[in-house]
Every structure is written in C-alpha cells, then in structure tokens.
Amino acid sequence: MNYKHILLTRRLLNVKDMVDNGIKFPSLEGLGVGFWKKLIFIKSQAIAARLITFTILCFLVVASSIAQDDSAKFLDAIYKEENVPPYKLPELLKSFDGKKIKSQVDWESIRRPELMEFFAKNMYGKVPIPSDPIVKTFKVISEDENHLEGLCTRRDILITFSNKFGKVEMPLVLFIPNDNNEGHPAIYWINSKDISNNRFDMENPQRFGETINNAPLKQLMLRGIALISVDYEMLGDRGKSTHDVLDGDIINLYFKPGQKSTADDEWGLIAVWAHAAVSGMDYIVTDKNINPDQVAIMGTSIGGKVALWAAALDQRIGMIISTTSGHGGDALWKRQVGETLDNMLEWLPRWAGRNAAKYYRKIDELPVDQHMLLACLAPRPLYIATATHDLWADQKGQWLGTYHAAPVYKLFNKTVA
Predict the structure, then answer these.
(1) Burial of 405 by CB count in 10 Å (0-12 exposed, 13-18 middle, 19+ buried)?
(2) Residue 2: which residues within 8 A CB-CB, separation 6 or more?
(3) Do the strands 135-146 and 152-163 form a parallel or antiparallel pair, or are they unpaired?
(4) 3-class secondary-structure state, position 222
(5) Which pLDDT tens digit goes with each residue over 58-93?
(6) Would you say the pTM of this structure is higher than 0.70?
C-alpha cells in the first residue's frame, strides 16, 4: 500500500495536484458512502477528491488550533523516523482475554464494547452520573429565513443544561438551504467558540458567500448541504491548560456534594467537549430540515480528537472527517513521534481522564492504541487528513492508525484502500 494513496492524504494541500498527475484515489463507494453522493458531490474520483479537499481546506481555521506559548513542551520531541523506538501494537482482533475476533458479531458483542469501556475509563474519562439529574432543553433564539440573500435560513439554538447546582448554556447554529427540500445532509463542524465570537458572520464582499471563519457557505447551500456548528468549549474552558484540577462549567453540575475535581475514571476535557457534540446531535435529530442519517461530523486539531471520540460514543453520527487530529485522535501513541502521552499529561493534564496517568512513562504497558478507536467507528465512512509539516501530529502515525483499523472495516465487507 502506497503511503500517499490511502484515503488519509499525507499532503492535504496537494491532493488536487496528485489527482491531476494521475494518482488514483480509492473509491469512496467501497467505504460504504453511497448515500453520501449528494453530500460530497461524487461524479468521479477526481471530482470527489477535489471537492472534499476544497471543503476541508475552507474549514481549516487558525482559531481551531491550539496556540501554545510554552516552547519547552516541544523540546526533545521525536520527528525523524530513524529515532522512532521499537514498539508493538496491541492486536485489534483479539480480546483482552485472548479470544480471536472473527466476525461482525464477535466485534460488536465482545471487542468493541470492551475497547469503548477501556477508552472511557482509562483514556478520555467517562461521563459521570450526576447526583441531581441534568435537564437539557433546546430553544430557538433566532431565525433568519433570508440569510445570504435568501439562499439559506440561519437558525440559532440555545442548549441549556441545568440542575439544582446551576445551569450552563451552549449555542448551536444551523444554516439550511432554502431549496424547499426536507431532510438535508449536513456537515456538523465541531469548533471551540466561533458562534459566540461571531465568526459565522459573512465575510467582506470580496469573498461573498464565505464566513469570517472561512466556511464556504454559499457553495454548500447551492449543493443542498446544511452546515451545523456548536461551541463545544462552552461546556469546559481550556483556559487553565496546565492546571490539574478539572472543574467549572458543566463539570460542576455533575459533582457530588463536596467534590472539588473529577474522579480518576471521570471525563477529561476531550470527553467534556465530545459530550457537547453528542448533546448537539440530540437537537439535530429532531430538526425536520436535517436528515438524521446523513450527518458528517468534522473537526480540526483538538476538534478532530473531539469529533472522533464523539463519533465513537454516538453512532447516530453517519460519517467522520478528521483533520490533523494527531495524538489522542488518529495517530499511534506507541510511535512516540511529536506529541506523546507523557507530553500531554505534563502540559495539558486536563485533556485526558485522570486514569491516563497510569501510563505516564509506561506507554509500552498501554493495552490499546488509536487504531482501535478508529476501528470503533466502523462501518461508518471515515476520512482522515493531515498536513505536510505538522510533525507534532505525526503524519505517518496517523496513516498507520488508519491502516491498522482497516481489518474491522473488512469484517463489515468494506473495501479499504
């Protein structure tokens, strides 16, 4: 298998050039995405590759990346293949007690549940059970049926989480084509606070049809594709990025009396933000203008990690698009290239669940890796992309994560590149 020919593209910025130069991309039909023809406008492999690239490039925003002022975290990182230490990946199709997984039934009844449980308890952290039940409500706070000169309707939703300890609010926005059709396919873009920061307002006249945060709104609306976004960071602020106490926002609503921080097996910020994405889906599936079976979640950088974990938790999500998510997303931890688990636990300890610290400087003892998370998304179509110079995310590790997830897709009779 050629590293550059898999659906994960090592050089995202040059996909068009690769197509023009005769490099053949795998058929998306083989990944089970026939019903996505309208979503990604597939008329030929070349057009599909160009348009997927165009959509994702327009969505890559500097605002969704994590700006780091602490340059020390990058010291001593491995970036060259010759420095990658020997490692052995845990077997995907063998259960923790040694049973071989040979069928879809084995996967769905044995292997996937135990992997999801491990990731929830030991890596991302599970959603706690609140001492007082959470009440979740949805309210339409505004609707503009003549948005973008009548091309679409903008609908703003306020999602409220409340119990006796307080309430937390999170905005969700939908842009729905005004084409008299119901049940539109949708791209569900996971971002930090772009709604709250008014980055979905329209750009200047020189870039008509594009939002401030570069969403190609006009192009999507003309093709009958809805755009949805949610401000996941409203449920948990990453501002205290080096603080080891995880509290505030929605987290406090789940605390038991006297609790000051999360328990060892409870959620870290990636899981909190994934809960925001899942909560957004709770509204999306009720909106008559959206086809609930054709929602593609998409995220970049930390948003990519969030999108992947949210999609693993919520099988209502029909397709996953992850760009430059790297470690904790699609890249293999055991390669220890770029960002490592040790590095994340030192510099961003609130992102993972507390139990992840059990594997600090013990990465060889970790009985899972990220290819197993990607496999938990099967049989839904998965598109992963990276960038040429994002060594911190480990492009080859992302490709290998995707490659080693393929056996489960094959269990579902999906053709994998």
Answers:
(1) buried
(2) none
(3) antiparallel
(4) helix
(5) 444 333 333 345 677 777 899 999 999 999 999 999
(6) yes
